């Protein structure tokens, strides 16, 4: 399934969803901040997605889930339950958890695995799953190979891995390990390009200067080729934070995204 994140587009959220559906996408990632800014309830937005034929492939992001203890860990779990409530209202089943940036989080991958395993167990009781993503500026986990190790250590069927081309390629990480990952443990793939060399810090570029595949200089096609070797057949979503796209007409941007995604996937075969 091809999907697009709501954060790629400008304008009112309902209009974005309509543009995504019209462009041909079958799925959508809902950005939590878009929900907070919108006047409609999550349930109404979920109903609109259903009416448009859009599958909610993920609600994102859930931040700073791992490596906490005591009261901080308890508050994280309470926050997760609220996200699960929202996800249920949307009609989705997958929550994207991004690797922590907190200095107080424990650095051991086993600590992250324990936290995410508990989170996955809570998700499973509600018929939901957690997909874990390594942010390239993460405090302790900033590499997809580390994130995979966390998922492997947690060993929970409701916990999977997110692979984001930007976070992988911006660090120049090797792709052989990615190509050997079990497809069954990949929950979501996100595609984005970016200018190179990356002259600003990685977080700034990620938040403001991403581009559709083929419009930047990252080796997105190599990433897609490595992914193809896994046999992955799940959702592939455009996640493109861009100040430029943020002022472009919504419908035009959605169509451009579809065309760029289609071209990138066809180029690899």
Automatic annotation (TrEMBL):
It comes from the Bacteria. It holds the Pfam family AP_endonuc_2. Residues 17-244 form the Xylose isomerase-like TIM barrel domain. GO terms for molecular function: isomerase activity. Gene3D superfamilies: Divalent-metal-dependent TIM barrel enzymes. InterPro entries: IolE/XylAMocC-like, Xyl_isomerase-like_sf, Xyl_isomerase-like_TIM-brl. Keywords: Isomerase. This is Sugar phosphate isomerase/epimerase family protein.
